Structure to design on (284 residues):
């Protein structure tokens, strides 16, 4: 006898899905996403970075507006929304990027996370607490050594020069994979925002490299000191490294060709002399 399949009511399925979306694993995934994609520009209760502090953001705009803006900030700015234009002005023209990895469900979870973190005495996303004391020459020198790789990062990550260059680095400059960091202190609007960015870099390359090899707080402070010092020097960003490398390569190739030509020419001369000598002995 065949048993009839039970009819599962829609509200039961909905309840299961809701429970899954509210599970600890989903909340953890949302927190990880926020750290990797949002924490470099925003804190929750830690003050302004490049973007505004998100503590109690739901009291400043309704949820529908927040969802729309997070999904497509440029579109909201393009229609001259007053609050969106105010945010852009406060960020000195920096526009929040449109993240293709976001959808309405994830945005809703992020807003729930911000709401939950906002009522805590201190959010886990309050940002790195970097000292406001003036940078010393020792701080700058340590930051320079860490940038160049003269001193290894304690977490085992690669030195900055592997991918970046900076004004005054000397020699052939630094790497060309990442942007020139001469003015990064100015671009990220000061030490706290820059320190937060270094503590949780959002770019795919840096995120992958430093996921298991973070930068210690003291090293972050020293690097920020070095970047602030480079920005104060003024002038143009360092663009000479690649040109110097090419010129050195061409010069080395020319010198090598001259040396090889000279060596092979003398070798052929010696061979010809031996053959001519043997020929003469045979004739005689």
């Amino acid at each position: 006898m065949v048993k009839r399949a039970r009819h599962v009511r829609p509200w039961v399925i909905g309840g299961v899905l809701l429970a899954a979306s509210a599970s600890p694993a989903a909340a953890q995934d949302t927190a990880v996403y926020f750290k990797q994609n949002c924490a470099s520009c925003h804190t929750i209760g830690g003050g302004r970075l490049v973007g505004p502090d998100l503590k109690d953001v739901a009291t400043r705009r309704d949820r529908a507006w927040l969802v729309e803006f997070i999904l497509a900030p440029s579109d909201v700015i393009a229609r001259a929304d007053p609050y969106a234009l105010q945010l852009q002005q406060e960020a000195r023209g920096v526009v929040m990027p449109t993240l293709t990895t976001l959808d309405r469900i994830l945005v809703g979870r992020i807003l729930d996370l911000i709401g939950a973190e906002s009522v805590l005495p201190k959010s886990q996303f309050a940002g790195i607490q970097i000292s406001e004391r003036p940078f010393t020459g020792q701080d700058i020198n340590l930051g320079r050594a860490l940038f160049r790789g003269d001193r290894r990062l304690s977490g085992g990550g690669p030195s900055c020069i592997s991918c970046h260059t900076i004004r005054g680095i000397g020699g052939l400059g630094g790497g060309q994979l990442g942007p020139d960091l001469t003015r990064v202190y100015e671009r990220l609007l000061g030490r706290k925002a820059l320190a937060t960015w270094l503590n949780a870099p959002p770019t795919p390359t840096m995120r992958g490299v430093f996921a298991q090899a973070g930068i210690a707080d003291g090293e972050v402070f020293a690097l920020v000191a070095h970047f602030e010092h480079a920005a104060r020097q003024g002038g143009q960003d360092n663009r000479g490294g690649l040109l110097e490398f090419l010129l050195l390569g061409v010069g080395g190739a020319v010198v090598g060709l001259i040396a090889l030509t000279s060596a092979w020419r003398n070798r052929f001369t010696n061979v010809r002399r031996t053959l001519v000598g043997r020929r003469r002995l045979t004739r005689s």
